[in-house]
Design brief:
single chain; 230 residues; alpha/beta; six-stranded mixed sheet; globular
Length: 230
């Protein structure tokens, strides 16, 4: 019988925050913000390990209370404002291999500032990775419409009106911007193909950074406007 591939979900959550102090463990409808991301990983049928990467002891203890693994803290130099998430992921994977002989097949990065994930989305995107695609990213579409573009000239903004500024193939297309809802990649093997999953649900697009974002998220949960189990 073929062995089930190991999919690790790593949730990076540092203690410092520019926008809102300790936002990753700030209570959202009675639960720490990070608990929503931990729950989405634990409910995903394909994810075999859910781990929180943090330098903060309080975040570590709260994460463990919600059944995430925190086998070690990452160095503080990998948890600064300008620290590379990529380097912190490499550090975590290397230490798991060196100390626990654990080498996953697939890495899924889930950011705690995006709490609104459905079970169906998590299962669908991890299934795509299991099918052999090298990476999966969540994106939102951005229309290439000149009414949304302005040009700066001597501290004044002027709306672009002429379609001569862009070729037709740009004017009639859409651009895409990556969002932090889900990013998964194979650590070895697989086809060199990237899958972009366009997110249409406006609630799922919410990225919490400021107090106003928390207030919106509170209202969404209080009014039962989002089904996490869908």
């Amino acid at each position: 019988m073929e062995e089930k591939p190991e999919i690790i979900a790593i949730i990076p959550a540092r203690g410092g925050s520019k926008g809102l102090y300790k936002k990753n463990i700030r209570l959202l409808n009675g639960k720490p913000l990070i608990a929503y991301t931990i729950a989405s990983a634990l409910k995903c049928k394909n994810i075999t390990k859910t781990l929180v990467s943090t330098e903060d002891n309080e975040i570590a203890e709260i994460s463990k209370a919600f059944n995430a693994e925190v086998p070690f803290l990452r160095p503080r130099e990998l948890a600064m404002d300008k620290s590379s998430i990529g380097l912190s992921m490499e550090y975590t994977l290397k230490r798991l291999e060196d100390e626990y002989s654990y080498v996953p097949d697939i890495l899924v990065e889930l950011y705690p500032t995006s709490p609104f994930r459905t079970a169906s989305m998590m299962n669908k995107l991890t299934n795509i990775l299991l099918d052999g695609v090298s990476s999966v990213k969540t994106v939102v579409s951005v229309p290439a419409d000149l009414q949304y573009y302005y040009q700066s000239n001597k501290n004044k903004l002027r709306r672009l009106k002429s379609t001569n500024c862009f070729p037709d193939e740009i004017m009639n297309s859409y651009f895409f911007r990556m969002i932090s809802l889900f990013y998964g990649r194979r650590l070895r093997g697989g086809k060199q193909v990237m899958h972009m999953e366009t997110i249409e649900n406006p609630i799922m697009k919410l990225d919490i950074d400021y107090l106003s974002d928390f207030e919106i998220a509170e209202k969404i949960i209080e009014d039962d406007l989002f089904n996490f189990d869908e």
